[in-house]
Specification:
Length: 306
């Protein structure tokens, strides 16, 4: 009998330890966006090797970090549009490797915002095709693995109707915050209201709905928070048009999230900023293209991270 109880205790301890380990490892499987677009020179004897599969090169073919491109005659004949910090490392005369090397200190991302938006615009026709099946209805926020900013309100919005409470638990499974939703369809909360602390991974869910799955969130590192806030202020100071400010901020937040997925996921904030535009008629044609792409990027990102 004692041995049986001992085994039970050990089994429980192992389960708890595994649960704790899973929570503490903050997922880095955020959706990886393309960082290159083939423009020309692909017409003959050209292949892209990506994720174990071979594809024919084509106009607007999207390229991802780690892809290998081969072109029998000369790889230099290939014309590619690169995102900032992306490039093709030539392996030999007929092949190259797609690489992405953002700065380790994260401090110069804001200087590349216009280049980032130009790349988004170039990929417009591909992105629209890839995201046309994404619903324009209720959009889940802030997404799985989101990093919240100290002092910044975050919108928590779920796709199912109803919902009685929003509940937050720490990595030990202990409830730290619960709030009655009072039939509201969304709620705005700061990390301080929730009781979040640096270095901790939390789970949140909505009780009383069909899909009450738990999602991970954490607090953005203090140093990164300071950098992001300063970069957003820089965009605010140096951009005159309100529409341009909105687009540059959203583009910056998405790109820095893609560049450092282990540390940052601020896609949710980019979507909130884009939501501040109440009249799309104030945007010119280029701005509309980028605006729609950034919104589509968020919808695709949040679904792929779940």
């Amino acid at each position: 009998m004692k041995n049986h109880k001992s085994y039970e205790k050990k089994a429980i301890l192992i389960c708890v330890s595994c649960f704790f380990f899973m929570l503490c490892v903050f997922s880095t499987a955020a959706a990886e966006n393309y960082i290159g677009i083939i423009l020309n020179g692909y017409q003959k004897d050209c292949l892209v090797h990506s994720m174990g599969e071979d594809y024919y090169c084509s106009e607007k073919r999207q390229l991802y970090a780690g892809d290998k491109i081969t072109k029998k005659q000369n790889i230099k004949e290939l014309k590619i549009k690169w995102a900032p910090y992306a490039s093709g490392k030539e392996l030999d005369k007929t092949s190259l490797l797609v690489t992405f090397e953002p700065p380790k200190d994260k401090k110069s991302i804001v200087l590349s915002v216009k280049e980032i938006l130009g790349f988004v615009k170039t990929g417009h026709s591909v992105s629209i095709g890839a995201t046309r099946n994404i619903s324009d209805g209720v959009v889940f926020q802030p997404g799985n693995n989101a990093t919240l900013i100290p002092g910044q309100k975050t919108t928590f919005l779920w796709e199912s109707v109803g919902g009685k409470y929003i509940i937050f638990k720490n990595s030990s499974g202990m409830e730290i915050f619960r709030k009655d939703l009072k039939s509201e369809e969304f709620i705005n909360l700061t990390p301080e209201e929730i009781g979040m602390k640096q270095g901790e991974v939390y789970l949140w869910n909505i009780s009383g709905i069909k899909n009450n799955r738990q999602y991970k969130i954490r607090l953005l590192d203090q140093d990164i928070t300071g950098l992001v806030n300063e970069d957003l202020k820089k965009i605010e100071r140096e951009t005159t048009s309100s529409a341009n400010k909105m687009i540059q901020k959203a583009g910056y937040l998405q790109f820095i999230s893609d560049a450092y997925p282990q540390d940052i996921d601020l896609y949710w904030l980019s979507y909130l900023i884009l939501g501040e535009n109440k009249n799309e008629n104030t945007l010119n044609e280029d701005e509309k293209i980028i605006f729609e792409n950034l919104k589509s990027n968020y919808k695709g990102h949040v679904r792929e991270s779940m």
